[in-house]
Each structure stands twice: as structure tokens, then as C-alpha cells.
Amino acid sequence: MQNNTLTRRQREYLRHRNEILDVALRLFSEKGYHNVPMQEIAKKAEFAIGTLYKFFENKEELYKALVLRLAETFHHTLTSVLEIPSDEMDKLRRFLQTKGDLFADNLPMIRLYFTETRGATFNIKAGLDTQLRQSHDEVLHKLAEVFKTGMRRKIFNSAADPYVLAVGLDSLSNGFLFLWLEKPKEHPYPEKVDMIMDIFFSQILRADVPKAKISSVEPKST
Amino acid sequence: MQNNTLTRRQREYLRHRNEILDVALRLFSEKGYHNVPMQEIAKKAEFAIGTLYKFFENKEELYKALVLRLAETFHHTLTSVLEIPSDEMDKLRRFLQTKGDLFADNLPMIRLYFTETRGATFNIKAGLDTQLRQSHDEVLHKLAEVFKTGMRRKIFNSAADPYVLAVGLDSLSNGFLFLWLEKPKEHPYPEKVDMIMDIFFSQILRADVPKAKISSVEPKST
Amino acid sequence: MQNNTLTRRQREYLRHRNEILDVALRLFSEKGYHNVPMQEIAKKAEFAIGTLYKFFENKEELYKALVLRLAETFHHTLTSVLEIPSDEMDKLRRFLQTKGDLFADNLPMIRLYFTETRGATFNIKAGLDTQLRQSHDEVLHKLAEVFKTGMRRKIFNSAADPYVLAVGLDSLSNGFLFLWLEKPKEHPYPEKVDMIMDIFFSQILRADVPKAKISSVEPKST
Amino acid sequence: MQNNTLTRRQREYLRHRNEILDVALRLFSEKGYHNVPMQEIAKKAEFAIGTLYKFFENKEELYKALVLRLAETFHHTLTSVLEIPSDEMDKLRRFLQTKGDLFADNLPMIRLYFTETRGATFNIKAGLDTQLRQSHDEVLHKLAEVFKTGMRRKIFNSAADPYVLAVGLDSLSNGFLFLWLEKPKEHPYPEKVDMIMDIFFSQILRADVPKAKISSVEPKST
DNA sequence: GATGAATGAGTTTTCATTCAT
DNA sequence: GATGAATGAAAACTCATTCAT
Fold first, then answer.
1. What residue is closest to E19 (Cα–C1')?
2. What is the pTM of this model?
């Protein structure tokens, strides 16, 4: 065959496969996995039901393929952003902005991503959740890398675990993304990016903030 | 009978109802709503299937009752904590700690709570999500109240919207709670409470931190 | 005890039994046997479900008791009317009128009566249909008797089988009763009694009987 | 494919649909709608339960399809008979005979027809009863038309409302059809057709029409 | 006698999956 | 390869009946 190129057959195959995945994504994210019959996916994708089973062994495989494709998009986009060479602060800000863009562009996708990353509604067999978590974790590590470099470059205070900082920044942005979701007019995320940076950085940036008040801990009431 | 107390009948009724809810909670959080047949709940709760339908009109009502009971616990506990009179900083810290306790005590419950608050897997009809969101929002407002008082008392910098700060703190803690969930040994949440306070407060607390670097924004790439 | 009288207990018992039957009649005739749960009868009759089973061994027995009570009412009322001593023509006219009154007074009852006399929807076990048919047949024979007497008295032409004539008159009236049911304003049954007599009698009456007799209508007893 | 004909697929579809309807008719008329589980229809029709639901959305739709098919047969056959050009008296007699034939040919169908037209046992939703009534009413109007023409042609006395006469004749025949149903040996309906005509016509026919015409019977077309 | 909570067999309906065309 | 009619296991839900109080 053509070396390293796909035959027409193969290209068609992939196109069809992606068409099915697109329809499935939309439906799953709108109604949830269990509320979408294969019949509906087939009809909406304009394939016969039997054809779907040519592409995916069963409903769960279709689902897995879908979620993995999503994870890859997320992973790829966010990772790329962090690899664009620039100032650490810029990287982080751009990371936050890119998450916002991903949200805006892929709302259905997002719901699914979070549901399956966090939730327990659908017990994904065979470690799909593990794969997702891992993909997410890789992004976090990439983010931690930025903090680490920043510390080495003395931009950031090196007291804290970079990975923990990554988790903090990521979850802070999640909070405002969901706020955006719920109250889009009142709390547009793009405007919150600065806020997040504000909240996050004064402490981490080197400065002479009196720490006494902040960290005094009384015994926990369990 | 007992004045202003429940009759034995009523007490039995409530006990049975709660037994069913407990079993359902366990099963739903383990396997997800759609993967738990009513028959299984019935069997595990040691009631006949028909009896379940005496207590809850249908499966969805059972589910709603369950989630609402959970939401109430959350709402009540977190609200109470914020009402204990004390220093604003203490209130916030205690809030974070209490969330941790709730997580630890009600893990199955949590998964369900987050799945249904955030996710889209199971489209809850008739505004259950609205109720949940509202309940969550009330806690956030209560939290915002603390920030507001702190601002009035000049402890906190009053530049920011208190509600937004509440969202920020809450989501930051969520991030570390989930981290705890995933890597309990490496990242125990209780120890992260200080970290959260650290990250969160240097900026908000009045101080003479140079802000220039933080907030410089380049044009957003939409 | 009071001889030949019922004790209070017994009177109460019968009163309750009839209350249940009344409620059941209404519900069955409105919705049909299979669409009325025992629970509903119990609630509407203001008895506990268990109490119903004290009165009737099971749902079918309740149903049978009901239908038999109806049949008796029908049978008794129509038979009585035919026994009031008078002219044959008067008897027949009064029979037709009485059927109309029974219809007007007991519409739900009627539907049930006809359904179970004619229909096949609910396979009544143990010959309830036979009993009903028989009861109906007895009325028809009583009616036939009138024709027979009239023939003997030379008022009616004796060519035809009196029983067949009874069937004819009865079914003719049924037709107009149903017409009344469907179009009460346009086709009130009471006004159709003469019509029925008209249609029915010119042939059967001996040619020399004055037609005046046929159509003379006495004031209707509403 | 075959021009203006059905494809094999379509023909198979209709054949299967009719097979299901036939089985359902038999079972419903034998035991009544509520006493026939879908499973039984499926098994007797030699289809899987799911297949039934491909043809009919639910049990009630299956039932409706069935009753409507019956009503159409009735409507079509009786209407056709009344359109065969001939003497009014012949038309009416042939109408009565045809009803007898329909009864004889479709006894199970009949029971169902009458049960659901008249009874209240099964509360047919969404105007099936209205459709049935209307279909029946159309036949009655067609029959009334015959009376009207006969009046114009001075064969019938024009004193009465033709529609009312139609109702009368129809219900009279119903009475004898049911008599036949109950006592087939003693009271065969075909022999009653003359009786019905006898009863019905002496009054309606103008006095000067030779009575001979009334009872002359041509050979029945079975 | 009266009660009504509890029962569970039986019903309708859905939907993932197969396979002959 | 593609099709979609057919399958039937499994789920939600109903309701006649029982029985401990």
C-alpha cells in the first residue's frame, strides 16, 4: 500500500468511526450513558445498528473509545499550552485561559469528563477511570513542572510541593469554571483568570507577607 | 400517646424508610443509579419489592429522597460550623476541616453528591439539581458572609467580591479533597488545610504585596 | 333474639356490606373491573383493605355479589311492573317506561349490566354470566307471558312466538336507550316509547284493533 | 421494485402484523383484554416479545389497531351492501342478512366489538370509542338514507325520522343476533330476518302497499 | 372485629446484541 | 460490508391477598 498513508478504505473507516463517536458524545453528555440506547446512536449517526457493532464490540467499548478520545484532546491541548516556551507566569495564565476555551468549546464533553473523572454513577470496568485519572495526572505533573522551574528561577517561593500547587491552581480554576457554567452572565470565567492568579500568587510569589496569622492552627475537632 | 412524640407506627415507618435509604445509598454509590435494580435494594434491605413502592412512588423518588437527605446533612453541618461565633479566620479554617470530616465520614455519599451536582450521567428531572445547587449556593453565601464581615473588620482586603472568594476557597478545598480521595496516603486532606489557607490568604489579607506582576494581563486569545 | 328481625350486629353488617358494594359498583362501572384495585374500593368506602376481605372472600366474589345484586334489582323492578294488573298494552308500555327509568336512575349500573350480559371482556368464572342471562331470560319470559295473554284475549295476532316478540320489543327499546345514552338531547328515550310501540304493533295487533289505542299516551311517570 | 406494489419487506411486515393481530383478536375475545399478557400473544404468535413492540408501541395500541381493523370490516361490508343498487326493501333485508353473516363469520370479533362499543369494562383512551361510535353511526346514516329514499318513492310512510327508523331496525336485529348467540339451535338468526321485517314494516309501509312484498324472501346469499 | 403494613407473583416495557439477507 | 428485523433477558412497577397487632 501507500507507505505511512491510509488507503481510501481506511480513511473512510476512520471517518465513519469518528462520526459515530461524535454522535455518541453528544447524546451521552446530554442524557447520560444509560439513557442513550444504541438504536438512537445508530439512527442519529445514520448507520444501521449492526454497523455500530462492526466498529465497536459493544456499548461499553464504544463508550471507552469515546472517553479516551476526549481525554486525549484534553491532554493534548493542555499539555501543548504548557510547552509553548515562555515565562512561567504566562504559561500558567495561558493554561487557565485554555481550560476556559476548552470549556466554552466543548461543554458536553466537559460534563462527561468530570462525571467520569469524579463521579461514581457508571462503574467503568477495566480501568477506564484509571486511564482518565492518569491522563489528568499527567497534565497536573506538567503543570507542576512549571512551578518547579519557576522555583528554580526564584520566581516562586520554593516552600511548597509543586504538584500540590498544581492541584491547587487546577481546582481553583475548576471552581470558577463551574461557577461560569451555573451563572454565565454574572461570572464569566475569562474575567476570573486574573482573580485566580491574584488569589493564588501573592503567597507563592516571593514577598514579605507576615505568615504568622495565616498558619496558626488550633487542634482539629474530629 | 406520647405527647408531641411520634407513635410507634410512625417511628417504625421512619426507621424502615431510613433503612431503605441507607441500603440504596450504599448500592447507588457503589455501582451507580442505573446499575442497581429495585429488586436488589429490596433484597438487601430485607423488604419485599412492593414495600419499597409503598415508601417511594418510584425509583427516581427514592433517589431524590436520598440525595436530598445527603444535601441536608451537608448543608446543615457546614452552615452550623459557620455559625459558631469566633474569629473569621477560625471560621474558615473550621469550615475546611469540617468538609474534610464530612468527606471522611461519608465517602459513598460524597461520590454521589458530586456526581449528581456536577455530572450529567443521570439527568435528574424536576429540579432536583436546582435544589442541590441552591443548597450548595446557600452554603457559599454563608461563607461569603464570613468574608464580608472580615472585610468590615479590616482583616481582609475588600477589593474582591466576597461570594467569589467563597467559591474560590470552596473549590480549592474540593481539589484537595479529591486529591485525598485518589491518593489518600500521599496527600491526606487534613494536612492540606493549612496549605489551602496559605495559598488563599496572603493576597486577601491586607499587606503590601506588589501586585504589578500578578495582574498584568495580555489580551485574551478567544 | 328478636324473632325474624336482625340483630344490630347483623343490620350493621349488611349496611357495611352494601356500602362497599355501592362504592364498588360506581368504580367498576366507571373504570372497569380490572382497572379498580381493591385498595381503591377500600379507601373510597372508608374501610381497611382487610375489612373488605372479611366481607368478600376475594375480588371476584365481591364482583359477583355486585352483579347479582344488580340483576336482582333489574329483575325485581321489571318483573313487578309486568305484574301490575292491567291491560296488556299498558303493561308493555309501562315496561318500556320502567326500563327508561332504570336507565336514567342507574346509568353506571346499566353499563355494567350490558357489558356483562353481552361482552366477553372479563371471563366470569363459575357461571355468573349464566345466572345473569337466566335472570334476563326470566324477564323476557314474563314479557312473553303478556304477549301470550294478549293473544288469548285476541288483542294480538297469534301468528308469532310470544318469546320472540318479547325479544324483539326488548331489543328495540335497548336500541333507543343506547341512542339516548349517546345523544341525550336529540333523542330522549321517554319520547321514543310511543315510537317503539308504533313500530312494533301495527303488524302484531289484529288489523281490527283501533290504532288509537296504540299511540295513546298517558302522562309519563318520571 | 414492483411498480405500485409493495416490496417483499413490506409484504412480510404486513403479514407479520396481521398474524399478531389475528392471535391477539382470538385471545382478547376469548379471555378479555386484561387477562391476556403480551407474553402470551407473543408466544402464540410465535414472535419474541420485543418483536410485538416493534409493531405496536404498547399493548393499548395493539388493541386499538385490532378494534379499528374490526370496525373497518364492519363498516366497509355493511356500507357496501347498502350501495348495491336495488329496491329499498331488498336493501334492508340484505343489510339484515349481511349483519347475520358478519356475526357468523366473526363471532369472536363481535363479542369484542360489542363489549367495547357498549361496555365500560375497559376504558379506551384517546377517542377509540368515539371512532367506533362514529363508524357505527355512519352505517346508521347510510341505512337512514335508504329509508329516506323509500319515503320519497312513497314506499314508506314518511311520518318518522329516517335515522330513528334506522336505529330501530338495527337494534331489532341486534336483539335477534344476541338471541342467536345464546340459543343458536332454537333461534337461528337467518330465519329471523323475515320476522324482523314483519315486525318492522307493517306500520311503516303505507297501508296500501301489498303485504305480500314484505315477507317475500329471496334466496339468502351466504 | 378491624386494621393496614408487608408480601411477591405477575405484568408491561426496554434495549443490547445477533444473524440471515 | 452493510443492514435492520428479531430476539429475550432483565428492569420497573402493580395489586390481590395475608396476618400480626
1. A50
2. 0.78
